Amino acid sequence: MLLGDIAHVRTGDKGDISQISVIVYDSVDYDILRERVTVGRVLAHFKNLEVRVAHRYEMNEIGALNFVLEGALKGGVTRALALDAHGKTLGAQLLDMDIGAQERV
Q1: Residue 101 lies in a domain
Q2: Which range of residues forms the domain containing residue 25?
């Protein structure tokens, strides 16, 4: 099962920091999200990014996780020559992460 099967994302940026919120479609899947989408797994999925520090914030009330990836945008919008200086495609890439079997936890 891919993360995109149970969740959608919103992304934002500030300087070289990318912020990705992962929100479940159905609240019954929030425990799967919390268990399987860890900072370590997100960093492994984005292994080619030069993330300095990563943080995960749980937003239980709305069934979401918020990841803050410092250094992910190689300088940010005004300094990077990247095609995706805002990091909007990072959210779509994260939805392709394999989170294992579909059983409920």
Answers
A1: no
A2: 3-95
